[in-house]
Structures are given as structure tokens and as C-alpha cells.
């Protein structure tokens, strides 16, 4: 068995051989389309599956899991979450929806077709965002660390620290796995970090400044939060808490961004 010292030395050597990038791509956006969004939905998690959006909404006493018609914003199926819980991130794994809670350290597993409750499991710390890379669940907790979980046992299999050229990127929130990268909302900003899942390095930033002006946001906490990717149609959707619209966007422009923008 290799010692912890040997493992640490190997990791340090690998880091020396693979230095952090000196430049990071920054993208702007073009709005392709916009769709109605329930302004009572405190969006915590968002995914696109089989032509519908599935949304986790938060706040104590108001949390829910919803199946939403994209074109109209109509909620076609909904499950209320017990008022004891503040719902958070959401993902789908092999026909099941997995929904985190904020401070309760409990996750709910539902049947995708019926939204029927199947089981719960617990995890350490807070739950913010959730996605998967095809083999592992990926969880954020509001820090600069992402945690990997086995989707069968829900046991921790690893962690990565997210950095932009050595600077920790904190407040990682809603997550989505897009074309081999982890996209992460950074709480209370109009930025999405594009993260390499193998290293935790930020390989790019998406600046969504101006997507919804402050004057159109109904509350101070109506911040950007919600990323959904339609892999079949290669469509990227973003929204925010209490926002009136969901936007389909394309990334445009390239520039060098400073660490942490």
C-alpha cells in the first residue's frame, strides 16, 4: 500500500508538470430565444430532459420539484417538498431525479416519470448544486470544493478544489455538465465558471452581465441561478431565482480574463 506521503509527493509532482493555465477564455452571450418562467419560482436546480425542464425551487415552506413545459412555462407536474426542507440542486440519473436540500443534509430520490418518492440519503455539509458526468454525481456546497459521489451508493469518491490560476473560486452554486466541462453559477454574480472536472481548474468564464437588468429583478436575492443543457439539440438555457424568463443562449466572443474576473 502506498503511503500518504508518497501519494502527496506524486500529486505535487503532477501539479508541477501540469501548471495552471496563464490565460482563461472569457465568453459573452447571444440570446437565441426566451421563454416564460414562473416569477414565484426560487430556482435552485434546473435540467432539461425529454423535451421538458425539471426545476427544483427553494425556500422553507415553498420548496418544490416541477416538470415544466419550456415553450409556455406551464407547470405540468409538481411535487411539494416538506416545509422542513429548503430544496436545492437537482439532477437526473438513470430515470430518477435527485434533489438536494440546503442545511438539512438530506437528498430525495424520485421517479422521473411520476415524481413519486423512492428513497432518501444523507451527505455531509450543505447542498447547493448537483449534476453528473455520466459516472459520478457532482455536488457543490457553496465553497470552492466540488464533491464526487457514487450514484449507486451515494458515498464520497473524491473531491476537487476549484481554482482560477491559483485563486480559489468560492460560492459555487447550481451545476450542469456541458460537453465535458462542469458549468457552475457563482452565487450573487452574473458569471458562470467552466471547470475541468479532472483538475478543478477554471478553463473559461461566461459573463452574463445585462441578461436581466437589475431593474427587472423583483428582489435583491433574485440572482442568476439555473443552467440546463439539451445535449440532443445542443441548446443551453439559463435563468435566475424569481426571474420572469428562461433564456436560450449561445456563447460568443473570446477574451483574456483576470483571475476571478
What does this entry look like structurally?
A hairpin with a 2-residue loop joins strand 2 and strand 3 (52-57). The longest helix has 14 residues, at 4-17. The protein has one domain (22-256): YVTN repeat-like/Quinoprotein amine dehydrogenase (Methylamine Dehydrogenase, Chain H), CATH 2.130.10. The strands form five sheets. An eight-stranded mixed beta sheet has the order 16-17-18-19-1-22-21-20, with no helix packed on it. It has a four-stranded antiparallel beta sheet with strand order 2-3-4-5, with no helix packed on it. The protein has a four-stranded antiparallel beta sheet with strand order 6-7-8-9, with no helix packed on it. Residues 1-19 and 257-261 have low confidence and may be disordered. 5% of the residues lie in helices and 51% in strands. It contains one helix and 22 strands. It has one helix at residues 4-17, and strands spanning 25-36, 43-49, 52-57, 64-69, 75-80, 87-93, 96-101, 106-111, 117-122, 130-132, 137-140, 145-149, 156-161, 163-164, 167-168, 172-178, 181-186, 191-195, 202-207, 224-230, 235-240, 245-256. It has 261 residues and is mainly β.
